[in-house]
Fold these 2 entries.
Entry 1:
Amino acid sequence: MIQISNLHKSYVMGNNSLHVLKGMDLQIEEGEFVSIMGSSGSGKSTLLNILGILDDYDQGTYYLGGKLIQGLNETRAAMTRNEMIGFIFQSFNLISFKNAAENVALPLYYQKVSRKKRNLIALEYLDRLGLKEWAHHLPSELSGGQKQRVAIARALISQPKIILADEPTGALDSTTSFEVMDILKEINDQGKTVIIVTHEHDIAAMTKKIIRLKDGVIEEVIKNGELQLFKDRVRTE
Amino acid sequence: MFDIDRWNEIWNALAKNKVRSLLTAFGVFWGIFMLIVMAGSGKGLQNGVSEGIAKFAANSAFFWAEQTSEPFKGFKRGRYWHMDSEDLQFLKDKVPEIEYITPKNFTGRFGNSSNVIRGKKNGSFNVKGDYPDYIKIDPVTILKGRWINDLDIRDKRKVCVIGEKVFESLFDPKENPLGQYLKISGVYYQVVGLIRAETQININGRTEESVSLPFTTMLQTYNMGNQVHFLAITAKQGIPVSVVEDKVKELIKKKHSIAPTDVQALNSVNIEKEFKQMSGLFLGIQILTWIVGIGTLMAGVIGVSNIMLVIIKERTKEIGVQRAIGATPRVIIGQIMLESVVLTTVAGYIGLSLGVGLLELVNRIIESSPQPPGERAFFTHPEISLTVALSALAVLIVAGLFAGMIPASRAIQIKPIDALREE
Ligand SMILES: Nc1ncnc2c1ncn2[C@@H]1O[C@H](COP(=O)(O)OP(=O)(O)O)[C@@H](O)[C@H]1O
Ligand SMILES: [Mg+2]
């Protein structure tokens, strides 16, 4: 699904250049549930943004679903994002003057699905996430967990292959965090590739594969079978 | 385009900045309102004035004698002279370009003392000596009876034609003035016609307040010899009246021993020239209107562009989210342009409607206000042609597009990742 080799990314600010990703190689198969970990500033968001075609990279190659993602114009990038990727953000990023259902329906609006149809589908998705009664509430009337569930519904509605989530639980308390993770796990069980960025070990431990970044490269990949070991290690750390 | 979400989006964007939206919209509103009101008023003035003179023969000129201003052939300067009846035939023979030539004489109107008497009623009116052809130059509506005819001239009949005001002061409203007698400066005349002026051009007093006698009758009754006070001439079709004017002046001066260089002795008015000056003035008013109107409109449009920029800045994040979940640049540009067009067009449309409404109101007030008969307002039918209104709307839409262009391009320059980055 995702194939990255020798990926480089630097941020240039005036005369300074900050080399964040330094020749990264990464492969993620369809249906994986992956968390990206690493200390603050290690380039987790940078990597996720490149995966989501929100940002471009300097060197190397990135294949998404067999297609080379390089130098796309903004229209192609937007269309690819709309088709392939669902985003979940730490701060939800719901549109404040649209109600829950309208927010969820938005990606279908860009696909030119008729209003009636997309609102129906949006209600379906909200129902699945247990938010049917909240469909006509504005984001400001929802709790953090509810907002994130609306955001998840919005990420799912265009039936993308991949869900990208940058610190999806970063703004939530631990109970709500686990609820959100349960939802993501369910989504993954239905066959979608889910990639989250987190710095919380217990959150990462709920995924099936952990990628640890350090100094712009992958320091360690912990796979399914080794997760128990990872959990023990975290406990003793 | 007609997706309700899109309009929702626009409404929300504008409503979130109510005060600013209103202020900017007001700029556009005011611009178009001023444009419409000014253009309409200009047109109203033009209508009023042209209705007042439209029927007057445009190819006419008038002549009257003044004191000479130069000595000539043994005459001193400052000499009093006058044209005479012989000049009429003389000019007809010598100037083939003349179509109509009619003399017009006046008796003095002595202050407010009554010169026209009928039984116990009396009044002070202008008394004129006229020719049958005169109404071909300055048309009148004949309300009753007839105008002066050739027999009146030939037989020097003691008849008269009266204006509406004269009728009102000397007769009961239901009375028939025809056949009745008026005593004018001591002599009795029979009324043969009642007229109303069609133009606002008045020579030696308003037509409404005038009594016209046959020219020859006046000469005889008031011992005017063969003097002609005033000469009205029209040129034949296709000939500029200035040509006739120059020829007439030259011939008359020669005939009456006036220096050819004397510009004062024979005075004249050339209606054609006056018309031209007037239309130049109206053109000037129109141009000024459009310059001021479009200037104001531009200021409004720049305001719209500005508010859109501010809105874009405040919505950077929202636009970032939209782009992350699949809004293409076209969608974003389209939305911002549409917002801008909606803002300008709605504001402009309101300005347009209120402007037209105001003109209509003024028009109604003018039309319903009682006017003396035969008298017209110099300001009528202030109006805006459909073409002007439609082109103003078109200008608004185009202006709205332009106003949206800068903010739209600014919005797509923001990379989604920059828009989304959390501070
Ligand atoms: N747009 C940017 N311009 C300059 N520096 C940036 C930009 N985005 C991120 N950085 C820097 O790059 C490094 C990696 O950032 P990021 O990928 O956000 O880290 P993480 O998400 O792992 O905390 C940090 O030092 C950050 O300050
Ligand atoms: Mg980060």
Entry 2:
Amino acid sequence: MLTSRGSGSELEVLAVGAEAVLLKGYFLGIKSVYKVRVPKPYRNPKLDLKVRRERTSAEAKHMISARRGGVNSPYILLVDPDAGVIVMEYIEGDLLRNILNSLPECRACTLLEHIGIMAGRLHNEGIVHGDLTTSNIIVCRRIGKPYLIDFGLARASEDIEDRGVDVHLFLRSLESAHFRVKDMAFRCFLNGYGKVVGEENLTKVVNKVKEIRLRGRYVEERRRHH
Amino acid sequence: MKTIVLGIESTAHTFGVGIVKEREIIADTRYRYEPEKGGIHPRDAALYFMNIGPSAISEALRSAGISARDLTGVAVALGPGLGPCLRVGATHARAMATYLNKPLIPVNHAVAHIEVGKLVTNVKDPLIVYLSGGNTLIAAFNEGRYRVFGETLDIALGNFMDTFVREIGLAPPYVVNGVHQLDRCAEKGKELIDLPYVVKGQDVSFSGLLTAALRAVRRGVPIENVCYSVREIAYSAIVEVSERALVHTDKKEVLVVGGVAASKYLKEKFEIMSSSRGVELAIVPPKYAVDNGVMIAWTGLLAFKSGITIEPERAYVRQRWRLDDVDIPWFGQ
Ligand SMILES: Nc1ncnc2c1ncn2[C@@H]1O[C@H](COP(=O)(O)OP(=O)(O)O)[C@@H](O)[C@H]1O
Ligand SMILES: Nc1ncnc2c1ncn2[C@@H]1O[C@H](COP(=O)(O)OP(=O)(O)O)[C@@H](O)[C@H]1O
Ligand SMILES: [Mg+2]
Ligand SMILES: [Mg+2]
């Protein structure tokens, strides 16, 4: 399974993510990424297998639907849930996390607006991403456009709660790692998001985000035994 | 001259008075409010604090062998926490500072948990995993503050564990001989049953797991197997989000703070994860992982040396004072 076919080149390690090892190579002659979900030895083996299998299928399935809904994401070439492996198109570019802080403001705003548009399209498609952070967006070097990756926690959902969680996760990734640009970045993101989902949905989601953030998570409301 | 700071903690169930002289802990007095049954009733706790407050302060000074005049300043946890409880600590601290004409130093309780953890374990720039009864939070220093990278979307891990064992009739008491009833009951379990494992980004959620686990018990699934599954799922989810945050932040140390950090099963999982990532793991010993006055004194000392003080008349309590609202100018010094 993990031998590269097509060009005869070897697989090389591209990245060691939080849950997967990513290898770069060729698949059927196409420059590809092999995402291999590795076992987590701290998890019960049965639980571990279940989690990896479910996330692998979810990732492939929702990446395919996302593309159908007009979201830039890598093209899926092969899926093997039992082995925890996905082979997908390689996107040449930079992680948003690594470049956002040094982008010129207007460029950053255009990019964030585009990301907002993609998040909106994904939600309109009935999918939530589940891990929407600046670490899971690649800015393609060739066309300068953002690609969404890492759909392992994606789910089919039309709940405002789940959509709110996506937007909350994105906002928090801005606050925690891009503090200086967070206000501008979030405004541009919502601008794009609102264009796609409409005023009414935008308001609902934004209110939900506020609610999620008031649930006493940052704050220390102590244990109440009812 | 050495800096000596007295710190007062009264954010929830503990009235603590600590005194530090530079890095040395010279007093650590604690009074814990134990409700007769059920949870913490803020007003009763506050009444209790008002009763024991003045003598707790004298006791701390006596055990440090100093007089109040020797203090450089008085620190107090102004939040986050329960309003009535917070106000008692603030009142005592304001009175002391005004009467002695010493600087008053505002301290955030969550920051204090982190700083005392760093003091006793000697880590420098960790990913912080804060697991108490009321908090589940993953944070790390970035651009001048402790930023929040992950948290619970509903209930805190400790609260979740306590609620589960109470609902199935195993508690209170929640912890016996340093072992939580969930861990104890899980020891006899063997089989993993299917319950929701929820991770969203770097966040966890336990409300679905709680409902499903209680339903399984009612359905007659052997209780040991439910406990085992709950423990495996809840602890694995916490370790997984910590690992995600570690990759995201690129920190080289992990500091686990809070009451739940005392669980050896949780510790085992953190050890496996940390060694596979090549990072150092530090778990704050229970004595300093729970609420205490020393952590307020120590953080107060750090803040004071960075020039942070507050006028007593402006020292309001802040029930919802966020961790990432606090500047940490002393970081790295
Ligand atoms: N299709 C791709 N093209 C190029 N790089 C990729 C691709 N997919 C993943 N990567 C790289 O691998 C890293 C981890 O991948 P990701 O899918 O986010 O895994 P994890 O779930 O472990 O975070 C990404 O941050 C990115 O740098
Ligand atoms: N040995 C232990 N193993 C697991 N959990 C524990 C242990 N000891 C205490 N706890 C849990 O830690 C929590 C209390 O932690 P603490 O830091 O004092 O929180 P808080 O200040 O929010 O009450 C409770 O939920 C309690 O059940
Ligand atoms: Mg990722
Ligand atoms: Mg606490």
